[in-house]
């Protein structure tokens, strides 16, 4: 049993029914998170990273939202749980640091009260013990003089300090799964390093699994056991951090990495823009921006995730522990690889627009 992944997401579809049409924010996403593993979700703004992570504990407003597919957490399909059971799971076995922490703290209670509330909801401690634990959590997220600050109100903390309080609350229950959605964007690099260390310690001590969402590929390279690359509600590629960074296979992943000049806070944009989530293109959703696109890329469904065997490592083929997979028809078959970008113009096929035309024609 415990060899099973802690979390298995299968064919997750999270749609929002709006006046303008149905927004397919997440459209058939599958991936696993093993125990003690850090999985990073990357992709441009609007790819569906946050909606994926919020669907795990069903934190989607329904309506307009609607969730289909399976989310198996430690053997239980979360989509079948009652509201009470879901509330228990959130802030209990699953901790969540949200992308927009503004609303995460209640202005009328002290931070200590709010951390203790999280502790007491799931653990049986005396008042004194839970207060002590709140102080030590504040201390471990790097809040100076935590013993004095514990009785302060949120407005007495700076933005970065507030974010650390939010992280302390998410850690209060020693969750089995921590979902961290851009948790360090508001923090300076020293504090960011400290928070990443804290996550690592937590993981080492409790075998915590972490889903880490970030735009900062430098951080991904540092923390990821596995990477899930999302685009327009689909998984484009998945593999170990090493595979994704050293051997990116999907043209989208390559474009993301090429846009990595490393400025904190964001990527240089990839030429072109995300398709409409209401009317996504047929075929591969990236094809309108892909310089390798050919006719077959434009029709049908998003290609399946083919095993990729081109890694220069010892994990062997796609059955190996590497499990490098890519949703691109160029990798169909045994030794798939990307063709020369000129190839298709030579054989009379229109090259893709976007990246290609953006390249100086
Ligand atoms: N409540 C909602 N109603 C309608 N559309 C929504 C709603 N919430 C999210 N969306 C849409 O779902 C898509 C995915 O959004 P999501 O927030 O998951 O992107 P993201 O990858 O996290 O982006 P970012 O990097 O900017 O955080 C977007 O098109 C967004 O506009
Ligand atoms: Ni997001």
From TrEMBL:
Please note every region of biased composition (Acidic residues). Answer: 309-320
SUPFAM superfamilies cross-referenced by the UniProt entry:
P-loop containing nucleoside triphosphate hydrolases (SSF52540)
Q: Which domain of life is it from?
A: Archaea
The membrane-topology field of this record reads:
Peripheral membrane protein
Q: Which Pfam families match?
A: ABC_tran, oligo_HPY
Q: Where are the transmembrane segments?
A: none
Q: Tell me, how does this one assemble?
A: The complex is composed of two ATP-binding proteins (NikD and NikE), two transmembrane proteins (NikB and NikC) and a solute-binding protein (NikA).
Record-linked PANTHER family: NICKEL ABC TRANSPORTER, ATP-BINDING PROTEIN, OLIGOPEPTIDE TRANSPORT ATP-BINDING PROTEIN APPD
Q: What is this protein called?
A: Nickel import system ATP-binding protein NikD
Query: What organism is listed for this UniProt entry?
Result: Natronoglomus mannanivorans
């Amino acid at each position: 049993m415990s060899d099973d992944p802690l979390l298995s997401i299968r064919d997750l579809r999270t749609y929002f029914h709006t006046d303008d049409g149905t927004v397919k924010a997440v459209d058939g996403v599958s991936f696993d998170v093993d125990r003690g593993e850090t999985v990073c979700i990357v992709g441009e703004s609007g790819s569906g990273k946050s909606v994926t992570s919020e669907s795990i504990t069903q934190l989607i407003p329904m309506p307009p939202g609607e969730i289909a597919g399976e989310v198996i957490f430690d053997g239980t399909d979360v989509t079948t749980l009652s509201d009470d059971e879901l509330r228990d799971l959130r802030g209990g076995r699953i901790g969540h640091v949200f992308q927009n922490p503004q609303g995460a703290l209640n202005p009328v209670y002290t931070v200590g009260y709010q951390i203790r509330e999280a502790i007491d909801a799931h653990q049986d401690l005396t008042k004194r013990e839970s207060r002590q634990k709140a102080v030590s959590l504040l201390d471990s997220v790097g809040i100076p003089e935590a013993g004095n600050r514990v009785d302060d109100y949120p407005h007495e903390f700076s933005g970065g300090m507030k974010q650390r309080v939010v992280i302390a609350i998410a850690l209060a229950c020693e969750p089995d799964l921590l979902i961290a959605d851009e948790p360090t964007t508001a923090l300076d690099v020293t504090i960011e390093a400290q928070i990443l260390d804290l996550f690592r310690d937590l993981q080492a001590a409790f075998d915590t699994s972490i889903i880490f969402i970030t735009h900062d590929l430098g951080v991904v390279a540092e923390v990821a056991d596995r990477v899930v690359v999302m685009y327009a509600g689909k998984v484009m590629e998945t593999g170990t951090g090493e595979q994704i960074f050293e051997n990116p296979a999907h043209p989208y992943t390559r474009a993301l990495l090429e846009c990595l000049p490393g400025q904190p806070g964001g990527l240089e944009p990839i030429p072109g823009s995300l398709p409409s989530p209401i009317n996504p293109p047929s075929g591969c959703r990236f094809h309108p921006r892909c310089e390798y696109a050919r006719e077959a890329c434009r029709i049908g469904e998003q290609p399946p995730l083919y095993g990729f065997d081109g890694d220069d490592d010892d994990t062997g083929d796609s059955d190996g522990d590497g499990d490098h997979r890519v949703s691109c028809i160029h990798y169909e078959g045994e030794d798939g690889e990307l063709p020369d970008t000129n190839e298709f113009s030579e054989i009379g096929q229109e090259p893709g627009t976007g990246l290609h035309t953006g390249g100086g024609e």
